């Protein structure tokens, strides 16, 4: 693993490469950045002419050579001069004796540069794989628990809007398959899969560092991973209660603690930069839930964390908000035939008189004024709003079809 200093150099270059007019355009974002440490890349860092020739097949400006990469003032001046001349950051920054940095305006462009720097031929027509100028273009996002369910739908929506997405999940098989799916849809390099156990701080730290190393930083962290175990006081055992608390409450703290230093560093390097932490909460975080106290309690507690984190991190332009979705009836949380909520609630007797899974579904659907369940698209739209809105932090935003209204 790279040292913190090496990771910091990647973040620094990305922030310093932000468009010089970023102060006038609050939505301008820096490029994606990676540092190439292969022997061939280190050799090319000392031979910028050879590097430029190797990258010649790509429609990008030439290479920028900078001495003393960790000298922020020198790097900033060099990048600003380059951007004024070419209208964009360089595709590569060669720092003899230090390293080779690649800068892509899209995740796919960064992937192309990696391929070219490694000696592979570029795509025949890179324009075909270039994502549209979405509202999250240039954003590095990480979504926990994103191999399936709400998380998967959220990650898909973020990628569709131009973000580079780190898929973080405990399920390696599903997570790798989904990251590959995102690459196929939106261009190679769009997604990174990183295995993550959100109850293990070492695993979280490694995943966050993997994202920073791969894309150059982290702008949006979606704390989505969650579990639910239903049952009343006479049914819930301590082990099940601890599991729900660890995943839904404690893990949110561990994740925020891991990602905040990188977001703070980005702001220190570029005071105009904003970052977001969004916790996917639940309508059960806004009102009690009968025979479901472990889940509701963990979600209530997470809103307290959200408000507290928001107050602590606001000096660094880090906004912290929660989204409280209604029921995603078609996702695995509810519909899993073995341990989904329809099954759990039927067994726990949460719905008086219910004899079938359809009875349970009908009961919960009848509570929603808009007469449908929540979808990942509904939640993604709320995330877009929270990212766009620069004057909102510490909020718990209901997305419940009118089932729960704030008072």
Write structural notes for this entry:
This protein is α/β, with parallel strands linked by helices. The chain is 45% helix and 14% strand. It has helices spanning 4-16, 39-45, 48-54, 72-86, 107-117, 149-160, 172-186, 201-215, 238-269, 293-313, 332-335, 341-348, 357-365, 376-388, and strands spanning 32-36, 64-65, 92-95, 99-104, 140-144, 164-169, 191-195, 220-223, 275-280, 318-325, 396-399. The strands form two sheets. The chain has a seven-stranded parallel sheet, with helices on both faces. The radius of gyration is 23 Å and the shape is elongated. The relative contact order is 0.10. Mean pLDDT is 87; it is low at 124-129.
Structural key phrases:
seven-stranded parallel β-sheet; 45% helix; elongated; 407 residues; alpha/beta
């Amino acid at each position: 693993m790279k040292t913190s200093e090496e990771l910091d150099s990647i973040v620094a270059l990305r922030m310093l490469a932000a468009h010089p007019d970023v102060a006038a355009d609050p939505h301008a974002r820096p490029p994606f950045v990676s540092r190439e440490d292969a022997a061939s890349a280190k050799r090319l860092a000392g031979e910028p002419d050879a590097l430029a020739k190797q990258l010649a097949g790509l429609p990008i400006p030439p290479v920028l050579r900078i001495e003393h990469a960790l000298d922020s003032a020198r790097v900033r001046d060099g990048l600003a001069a380059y951007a004024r001349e070419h209208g964009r950051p360089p595709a590569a920054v060669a720092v003899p004796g230090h390293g080779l940095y690649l800068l892509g305006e899209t995740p796919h462009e960064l992937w192309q540069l990696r391929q070219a720097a490694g000696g592979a031929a570029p795509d025949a027509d890179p324009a075909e794989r270039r994502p549209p100028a979405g509202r999250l273009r240039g954003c590095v996002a990480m979504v926990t628990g994103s191999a399936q369910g709400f998380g998967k739908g959220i990650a898909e929506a973020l990628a569709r809007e131009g973000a580079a997405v780190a898929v973080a999940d405990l399920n390696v098989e599903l997570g790798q398959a989904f990251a590959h799916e995102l690459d196929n849809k939106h261009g190679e390099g769009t997604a990174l899969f990183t295995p993550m156990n959100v109850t293990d701080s070492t695993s979280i730290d490694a995943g966050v560092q993997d994202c920073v190393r791969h894309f150059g930083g982290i702008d949006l962290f979606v704390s989505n991973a969650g579990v639910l175990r239903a049952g009343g006081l006479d049914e819930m055992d301590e082990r099940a209660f601890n599991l729900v608390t660890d995943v839904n409450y404690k893990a949110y703290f561990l994740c925020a603690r891991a990602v905040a230093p990188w977001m703070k560093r980005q702001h220190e390097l570029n005071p105009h930069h904003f970052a977001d932490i969004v916790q996917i909460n639940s309508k059960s975080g806004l009102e009690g839930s009968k025979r479901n106290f472990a889940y509701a309690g963990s979600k209530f507690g997470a809103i307290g964390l959200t408000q507290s984190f928001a107050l602590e991190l606001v000096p660094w332009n880090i906004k912290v908000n929660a989204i409280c979705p209604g029921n995603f009836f078609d996702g695995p949380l509810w519909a899993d035939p073995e341990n989904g909520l329809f099954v759990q609630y039927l067994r726990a007797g949460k719905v008086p008189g219910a004899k079938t899974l359809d009875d349970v579904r009908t009961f919960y659907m009848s509570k929603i004024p808009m007469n449908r369940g929540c979808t990942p698209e509904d939640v993604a739209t709320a995330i877009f709003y929270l990212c766009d809105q620069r004057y909102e932090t510490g909020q718990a935003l209901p997305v419940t079809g009118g089932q729960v209204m704030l008072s």
